[in-house]
Design brief:
Blueprint (H helix, E strand, L loop, with lengths): L2 H14 L1 H10 L4 H18 L10 H19 L15 H4 L10 H12 L2 H11 L4 H8 L3 H21 L6
């Protein structure tokens, strides 16, 4: 099949799963302009790779996550965004950016959760994104290229750290 023949199917699948691209870009971007650039770069890489997509081997969403997260993590590493002091912590207003339901007045615990996620390194941020999307450990492992045991171990450590931080967060609105 030629690229021209692939295009309508690619566009339909990308449109159907576009929220994934926006969630990943929103989670790995410091500004709206960075987010737009990352969405474009992810889309370009998806198109370049689409000829090799094999629906018998993976669901489209799994394949899309793998490419989107690889692009985002690579870009974050190139820009050295992994340093916590250079990343903008995830804030309540980012919910609109990553496709969530807007929260009128998030409480302090929700703000603490956003801050916690924003401090994670790029790989663990990807891991928690997939976990919060209710992806199975097998799918998370497939997307990130790590073992299911490694997924379970990393998630357990993240949850343990989060529990400790959330116990200290106030329970009332800010």
């Amino acid at each position: 099949m030629t690229a021209r023949q692939h295009q309508p199917r690619f566009e339909a699948l990308l449109h159907e799963h576009r929220r994934i691209v926006f969630k990943v870009a929103g989670l790995y971007s410091r500004s709206a302009a960075d987010r737009d650039d990352l969405v474009q770069e992810i889309s370009v890489q998806l198109w370049r790779s689409f000829g090799g997509y094999d629906e018998a081997r993976a669901k489209f969403s799994t394949w899309l996550y793998r490419i989107a997260l690889n692009v985002a993590i690579s870009q974050a590493r190139r820009a050295r965004w992994a340093d916590a002091d250079r990343c903008e912590p995830l804030q309540p207003h980012h919910l609109e950016t990553i496709g969530g339901e807007p929260v009128a007045e998030p409480d302090a615990r929700l703000q603490a959760l956003y801050a916690f996620i924003g401090q994670l390194d790029p790989l663990n941020r990807a891991l928690i994104l997939l976990y919060l999307e209710d992806r199975s450990y097998a799918e998370i492992a497939d997307v990130l290229g790590i073992s299911e045991t490694n997924v379970a171990t990393k998630l357990s450590r993240i949850k343990q750290t989060l529990r400790g931080q959330m116990l200290d967060a106030p329970t009332t609105g800010a």
